[in-house]
UniProtKB/TrEMBL annotation:
Residues 1-24 form the signal peptide. This is Pectinesterase inhibitor domain-containing protein. Pfam families: PMEI (PF04043). One of its GO terms (molecular function) is enzyme inhibitor activity.
Length: 184
């Protein structure tokens, strides 16, 4: 019995070692790109870049900066669409718990996110036709709009219900912008 136990332990350790060893060999193909774009960036960060781009299946088959920037632009569109819906919902609840100040801030965010959403189709088209500067100008406006939404709550000294959304939109716009710096 003792022999069997000992040898099964050895086998177990061997398996665990192999599993750990082989998974650490599997380097995320997005890593070099995210190091380039997110590594020195005070805005994006490597982890955000990896998890955002990695969340889209298309990233597994493309490692080109231009294609990845299209993915980031699409992620921003999806994000902004859902944030706009969240803002509409919060405003519809209206009165409720929200103070007049919060409602005013939300209304300003509603307009800002509407602008971002409206810019997105032209932004994606610009990337596809190679007008990177045009796309980058659009993305920079959108990053600022997300910042502006968040700052509105701060200035009015009320809690922001959109901190996560504003942060995601800002970072996705910066990520797409950063990828386009390297696109050809
Ligand atoms: C928004 O983007 C973030 C970062 O990529 C992601 O974690 C989140 O799931 C996205 N939300 C939507 C609704 O797309």
């Amino acid at each position: 019995m003792k022999v069997i136990t000992a040898s099964s332990l050895v086998l177990l350790f061997a398996l665990v070692f192999l599993a750990t060893h082989s998974s650490s060999q599997q380097i995320d193909p997005l890593l070099p790109i995210c190091k380039t774009v997110g590594g020195g960036s005070m805005y994006v960060g490597i982890d955000f870049c990896l998890s955002a781009l990695g969340s889209d299946k298309r990233s597994h088959s493309t490692q080109g900066y231009r294609d990845l920037s299209i993915i980031a632009v699409d992620l921003l569109t999806a994000n902004v669409t859902s944030t706009a819906a969240k803002i509409d919902g919060l405003l519809q609840k209206g009165g409720g718990d929200a103070t007049t100040t919060t409602i005013k801030c939300l209304q300003s965010c509603q307009a800002l996110y509407k602008d971002i959403a409206e810019r997105q189709p032209a932004c994606a088209a610009a990337v596809k036709k190679g007008s990177f500067k045009e796309a980058q100008a659009s993305l920079q406006k959108s990053a600022s709009a997300a910042k502006e939404c968040e700052a509105g709550f701060g200035k009015s000294r009320v809690a922001s219900p959109l901190t996560v959304e504003d942060d995601d939109a800002f970072k996705l716009a910066k990520l797409a912008d950063g990828l386009l710096d390297y696109a050809a």
